[in-house]
């Protein structure tokens, strides 16, 4: 069970790392979209001035807003997944800490039991030796 908890923690850490990597990728995508949106906006303004077509500019702005909304949604999803994984990691860390504490107590009990057994063996050997001496 201890190994399974450690393995599960490792898997969660990998998922967390992947989620963070995905967040980084999404942030890069957002920056790319923003850069593209800025360029598109500049072209749209020039085109609107040239052609006096306000509707053209409105369609570009609407498309950009939709693209930005979608990119933000993806980042939000990735951040939510990272939060869930972090919470699960903390839960597993607590379980692992509890298991380690139990394991330490068991080791202490075994050491105490071993010492008691050694003392009994010594006492029995001493008694046997004494009985042999008396006999």
From TrEMBL:
Residues 107-135 are annotated as: Disordered. Residues 112-126 have a biased composition (Polar residues). It comes from the Eukaryota. This is Uncharacterized protein. The lineage of its organism: Eukaryota, Sar, Stramenopiles, Ochrophyta, Bacillariophyta.
């Amino acid at each position: 069970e201890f190994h399974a908890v450690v393995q599960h923690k490792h898997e969660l850490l990998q998922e967390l790392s992947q989620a963070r990597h995905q967040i980084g990728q999404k942030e890069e995508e957002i920056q790319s979209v923003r850069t593209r949106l800025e360029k598109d906006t500049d072209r749209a303004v020039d085109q609107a001035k040239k052609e006096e077509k306000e509707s053209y500019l409105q369609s570009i702005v609407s498309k950009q807003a939709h693209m930005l909304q979608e990119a933000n949604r993806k980042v939000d999803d990735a951040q939510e997944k990272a939060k869930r994984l972090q919470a699960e990691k903390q839960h597993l860390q607590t379980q692992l800490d509890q298991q380690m504490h139990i394991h330490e107590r068991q080791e202490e009990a075994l050491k105490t039991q071993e010492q008691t057994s050694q003392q009994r063996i010594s006492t029995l050997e001493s008694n046997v030796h004494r009985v042999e001496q008396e006999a």
